[in-house]
TrEMBL record, chain A:
It comes from the Bacteria. One of its GO terms (molecular function) is metal ion binding. Residues 234-321 form the 2Fe-2S ferredoxin-type domain. Its cofactor is FMN. It comes from Gemmobacter aquatilis. Pfam families: DmmA-like_N, Fer2. InterPro entries: 2Fe-2S_ferredoxin-like_sf (IPR036010), 2Fe-2S_ferredoxin-type (IPR001041), 2Fe2S_fd_BS (IPR006058), Beta-grasp_dom_sf (IPR012675), DmmA-like_N (IPR054582), FAD-bd_FR_type (IPR017927), FNR_nucleotide-bd (IPR039261), MRET (IPR050415). CDD domains: fer2, PDR_like. This is Ferredoxin-NADP reductase. Residues 5-110 form the FAD-binding FR-type domain. Keywords: 2Fe-2S, Flavoprotein, FMN, Iron, Iron-sulfur, Metal-binding, Oxidoreductase.
Automatic annotation (TrEMBL), chain B:
InterPro entries: HODM_asu-like. This is DUF3445 domain-containing protein.
Amino acid sequence: MSVGAAKIPVIVTEVVEVNSLIKRFRFVREDGGEMPGFSGGAHTVVEMDDHGVRRLNAYSLMGDPGDRTGYEISVRRDEAGRGGSLYMHSHVKPGMRMLISPPVNLFPLDLRAKKHLMIAGGIGITPFMAQMAQLDALGARFELHYAARDRELGAYMAELVERHGERVHRYFDVEGQAINLQTLLAGQPLGTHLYVCGPKGMINWVLSTATAMGWPKGALHSEEFLAPPVGQAFTVELAASGKTITVGPAQSLLEALEAAEVDAPYLCRGGACGQCETKVIRCDGHIDHNDHWLSADQKAQNSHIMPCVSRFTGAALVIDR
Amino acid sequence: MSLDDFFNDESFFGDYTFKNSPRAVKRFPFPFPEDDYMYSVNMEPHVPGRPGSVFEHTFDVDEHYVAEMRDRARVLKQDPLRCQSLPHMTLAGWDLLELIMESFARDYPQWFSLTKSGNDWHWINRPLNIDQKFTFLDETTLPCGPMEYITRQAQGDFTLQDQREDTLWVEAGMVTTQADWSLDFDIGMNFHQWHAPVPVAHELGVFDRALKFLLALQHGAPVRRFNWTMTVDPLLDTSPENYPKWGPGKTTLTKENIGKRQHLRVELQTLFRLPRSNAIAFPIRCYLCSFEDLVTQPKWARRLHRVVRDLPDELATYKGFIRNRPLMVEYLSQFDDGAPTSPGWWPEE
Ligand code: FES
């Protein structure tokens, strides 16, 4: 199961340069129909044919979930990455046909919350845009704290303030502004849920501060998609399908499995959801466990691997696929 | 065909006038594809199936529709707690309402229609004589909550599961045709808690795998599976709350009346990811067929005999028919000449 639902054929109708690093893309259905409804925090997986390499990248849906005429995503250019974001930036033009997945939500709102407190860093703003539109329509209570490096890179800040007014708080690093997290968390009403999306450092800081202040685990929500890292090519033996494959330097093990037509489940493709978890049968070498799914124990024993983000160096790796 | 001709006028309690027409018997979802039965989660994509079968459409509306909805109203009147929805599940209720209304109107245009202008919706249900204008996502424009509203018009039980903390929580439901479980008891439970009573399955680890599968269930890719049990008399509501009313029936089964009174009860369970709430809807549709009607299909007669005869004791106990098994086997053996059966569960043409 590469998780069931048929891909949606779409046409790119808008490509907008939001700032020097971020572009926004709008997709509508090729057949003119409505997009599936979605919940705030959901992402879609965009399929790219990057000069013969098939790339599948997950991007948060940032539009209003109540609007089924099209989907919007924002892509931050990552110069050092494997090329997915560069492909989106340099090759995707209005009028182009693409395939995207139905929405999947790994960062859902908890609708039991008395209040939703959201903390965003940089491009991590996108899932919150959809969530705030949805909460607004439901009449729920929310507050956003959004930090960016400077005014230029604070994408969508003006629109968000216009839409949600005083519920949006802005912070610019270069102006010496920072979220006063302790005070912010201490002042929240009982039943508040905390959501954070942004760079790794920010997520760790927010979650560890909240935990230290006694926030229950169930009230903390975060989303961090890792970009699959590049590395050395390596070879993997697939015990179940009897194949041996080579993973290229700018390819993930998951992509290599797919290229070899081996059925491999996935959802996030970013080391977070657990769906791609695969048993390791023999590991003679070193696995770079880049995910945040496996336990420290599983990583130390090399009992499992997450093919979407993890790599291998050494003599032999045999996995159960 | 007029509405009155298609829908049966029948009861599921008291005088039990429930019956299956020959057409309904032929399309009964006989749950055994082989002569051996093994507990498994066996989920498959819920895609449209053979024309005329119970999965020709997303939701099956059959000849029992009107009578079942009447029975639901009766049960709810006696026990309003059969329908519950925790406050945060209202959005999921709207998702379910939309799914059912859109499916019914698309698949049965002769009976149902839905017209939309933005959030102003107009719903017509001809078999139940309902004509309702309302505002989508505005509860004050319906006579009751959205889940209750639509499940009073859809056959089968329904539960809605919220997804949090890597598990699923039953937090809303309409349950009036259950096979011996209770919404009031299960509401608020997570996936493993509400499956706790199933023997064997835990050891096989099937629930861990099923949960992992469900957490990844995608919108637009529903799945289905079957479950089955045995019920004496065509009683839809075999709830634990009502055990004193239906339990004793099991003790009055005889060689003479078993063909008429013993029913195979099949649940067609489907699972849908809901779009706006990210919740999972779990419709559980119940089909009943008397032994007497089942044995009109020679393949089913042979196979049912073999399955009932060979089922491990703990499953026969769990399914509540260990006591009457000898009687069942005796009755069914008359129709089993030992001939091989063809694979799959469709009756022989
Ligand atoms: S696909 Fe989500 S962890 Fe690998």
